[in-house]
Amino acid sequence: MAANGSARIAAPTNVSLGLTPPVAESLEFKTVSVFLVLLVCTAGIVGNVMVVLVVLTTRHMRTPTNCYLVSLAVADLTVLVAAGLPNVAESLSGTWVFGHSGCLGITYLQYLGINVSSCSITAFTVERYIAICHPMRAKTVCTVSRAKRIIAGVWVFTCIYCMLWFFLVDIKVVESGHVQCGYKVKRELYLPIYLIDFAIFYVVPLLLAIVLYGLIARILYLRMNMHLEVPHALPPLPPLQVTKMLAVVVVLFALLWMPYRTLVLLNSFMATPYLDDWFVLFCRTCIYANSAINPVIYNAMSQKFRSAFRGLYHCKGAEASHLEIMRKYVTTQGSSVLSTRLLRPSHVIKCF
């Protein structure tokens, strides 16, 4: 059990667990940690739920690209709930409170959300490349039904791949008497897993994004020059705002995941790993911020998302007002008025 404890502390990969005293148990650290994580996770959960709602309930928002963004939002929600909230609970209690099943399930969900988010980013990058660089082919390839099949395949593959973590973690009691969700084997045995994860879910998606967005930029540059020369002889340029927005999502994914990915990779090779508590907190906060910031980007850079978000808010207000009117009518004039006057088509609230 002591060996497990040293392995757990030596190379943290679980994004919500594994801080060591004395800094992690100080009041200052706990206050900053809980405040930051709650702030970022609350904003991220609200934002990503809104993304899912506006795409699922607004007909004109159901595009192939937005299907991938829903997959990304669900993956980000998984990260925020399975990583951020247990982090708060452990910071407040000073020990692992979710038991053996919680250790297995939460670790699994963390890696599931992380890996699905990476795959979803890769999927919409490829979709954007086909839509802009091969517009004729995109009419048959970039469809909502195909996007749904790809998303289902991504989730099935990742669910199976992440099952490995059910056999790699377990709870243990450290010398201080606290319970931790830790590793079952020595740190060196996790190196192949770290390298595979780092390659498949970080390096490859970023390299692919660099290549594809480079090709997209080249095609758009050539088309813009052609339009300047013969503006009326060519079809209109495709909308660029969506492409810019998705490129920003990819850039932020690369930047915000870089500290943690680099830390885990380097600690896998170092005899004495670097585990400064404040730096580990910074790395984890970057992860949570990456999962929380995408809805902000959509709102800032997409007129359609901005309008849909406003529509969702106004719709909730309209429904609340309608229910209050119904309650007053029922109270003052009886149920017959409700059936004959309030439920006519002109009184029915329709969202989107």
Automatic annotation (TrEMBL):
The lineage of its organism: Eukaryota, Metazoa, Chordata, Craniata, Vertebrata. Residues 47-298 form the G-protein coupled receptors family 1 profile domain. One of its GO terms (biological process) is phospholipase C-activating G protein-coupled receptor signaling pathway. Belongs to the G-protein coupled receptor 1 family. It is found in: Membrane. The chain crosses the membrane at residues 32-56, 68-88, 108-130, 150-169, 189-216, 237-258, 278-300. GO terms for molecular function: thyrotropin-releasing hormone receptor activity. It holds the Pfam family 7tm_1. InterPro entries: GPCR_Rhodpsn, GPCR_Rhodpsn_7TM, TRH_rcpt_1. This is Thyrotropin-releasing hormone receptor. It comes from Gadus morhua (Atlantic cod). Its main location: membrane. Keywords: G-protein coupled receptor, Membrane, Receptor, Transducer, Transmembrane, Transmembrane helix. One of its GO terms (cellular component) is membrane. Receptor for thyrotropin-releasing hormone (TRH). Upon ligand binding, this G-protein-coupled receptor triggers activation of the phosphatidylinositol (IP3)-calcium-protein kinase C (PKC) pathway.
